[in-house]
UniProtKB/TrEMBL annotation:
Signal as UniProt keyword: yes
Residue ranges crossing the lipid bilayer per the database entry: none
Residue span, DUF306 domain: 123-224
Top-level taxon in the UniProt lineage: Bacteria
Endpoints of the signal sequence: 1-19
Protein name: DUF306 domain-containing protein
Origin species: Sphingopyxis soli
Gene3D superfamilies: 2.40.128.270
UniProt keyword Lyase, yes or no: no
Alphabetized UniProt keyword annotations: Signal
Amino acid sequence: MLRYAPLAMLALAACAPAAQPPQGPKPAAYFALGTEPGWTLEITPEQLNYNGDYGETKIAVANPGARPSFNGERYVTDRLTVDVTHAPCSDGMSDRRYRDTVTVTAGGKTVKGCGGDVLPPGELAGTSWTFVSIGGAPVAGDRATSLQFDGARLSGSAGCNRFSGSYRIEGSTLTAGPLMATKMACPGAGMMQESAFFALMRGPVSLGFPSDGTLEITAADGQKAVLKRVI
């Protein structure tokens, strides 16, 4: 019996399914948008999906692949042509800026807009934000939050009391305070997330601007608050 064991093992190996190559992360879609008339564009590895004229025009075509163009890429199909130019762009309805300027021609009509990564604001003064998370915990949905930068002062609420104070920025480091706050007691998560934010802001913090347009405020110990822009 022993002399047949290798043959049996070979037979089993032949029947086993072939090993599948590891699947890497799916490439992120590219988004662009424009105003007057409102339009959006999504570019995935498989398709170009265009919604124009405030949603009245819808075109979905196979992605033909990007052709190199001057400082960017070009996608050409029978129904849709897209030019992506790597030059900063404002969406025209706010002061939000994007990495790319995008031109779309669909059905003989050409529109212009912005796409790609959201760029950091030119300065924090004059911007408003709401909290997404503090110390790794999502903020409570039933408690309104805000953070405004006005000149040399900041103000807002982390879910309970109103606070305000001075701030200064040197490079990517922000130093605030001392922060003054009202003395209202709040039940539940509101007080906890406020305490976490005040603890985070006791010393200098670093500012980061991920490509999704959020603001990250990070303390020396790694504790972080994540905020999204109010436009």
